[in-house]
Amino acid sequence: GEDVEQSLFLSVREGDSSVINCTYTDSSSTYLYWYKQEPGAGLQLLTYIFSNMDMKQDQRLTVLLNKKDKHLSLRIADTQTGDSAIYFCAGGYSSASKIIFGSGTRLSIRP
Amino acid sequence: DAGVTQSPTHLIKTRGQQVTLRCSPKSGHDTVSWYQQALGQGPQFIFQYYEEEERQRGNFPDRFSGHQFPNYSSELNVNALLLGDSALYLCASTPPTVDGQPNYGYTFGSGTRLTVV
């Protein structure tokens, strides 16, 4: 079956790194995504990784993929107040196919 | 360049009524997908339209139907509304694949907040 699980909340201090974790059950997902949703807004694609990659870095964002454990993580370096949002892990079979989303992790930043 | 545009932004309907939500995809995009996001949940896939036909469908009842027009815009219709249909409805569009190169995820609109009372 298709399922994506995430922890619900994460609180970090401004300037620290945030690590958001995700596990997925469907090993046939070829694309794995991280989306950001701010209050009252739609979903913004932050980054993605192909299932044949182990790591991808994009400025302050680092995605790690452990295919054996079906574990995906998103690290945000130097977390800022503007990073406060809900982060969704998601997977899809092909680039335009349906995307299966997790329930989201709410990231809050404390001073 | 406008992104994905959805209308209306908010809507209140009574149980049993019917509703139509509208989506204009990003310029150059030809595929439209609809998602339902209940409060505190991740988006759930409803269906996807390509070349004016439903290409994929999620686990939603037949009360949910859609349409895609020749200009790629799309409508989501929900009949016999239930209280549980209250949610944020998100539209997403994707561009055509070019020469076998993949596109990377969707472009989402800001959604329509539907409240059923």
Walkthrough of the structure:
The complex is a heterodimer of chains A (111) and B (117). Chain A is mainly beta and 111 residues long. Chain A has strands spanning 4-6, 9-13, 18-24, 31-37, 43-50, 55-58, 61-66, 71-76, 85-92, 99-101, 105-110. Chain A is globular and about 40 Å long. Chain B is mainly beta. The mean pLDDT of chain B is 92. The chains are: A mainly beta (111), B mainly beta (117). At the A-B interface, strand 4, strand 5, strand 9 and strand 10 of A face strand 5, strand 9 and strand 10 of B.
Q: Please give the share of residues in helix of chain A.
A: under 10%
Q: What is the terminal separation of chain A in angstroms?
A: 41 Å
Q: Structural class, from helix and strand content of chain A?
A: mainly beta
Number of helices of chain A: 0
Nearest-angstrom radius of gyration of chain B? 14 Å
Distance between the termini of chain B: 36 Å
Number of strands of chain A: 11
Give the averaged pLDDT of chain B, no decimals.
92
In percent terms, what proportion of residues of chain B is strand?
A: over 45%
Largest sheet of chain A: 6 strands, mixed
Anisotropy-based shape of chain A: globular
In what range is the share of β-strand residues of chain A?
over 45%
Kindly summarize this structure in a few lines.
The complex is a heterodimer of chains A (111) and B (117). Chain A is built from no helices and 11 strands.
Jot down its keywords.
heterodimer; A: mainly beta; six-stranded mixed sheet; five-stranded antiparallel sheet; globular; B: 117 residues; seven-stranded mixed sheet; 11 strands
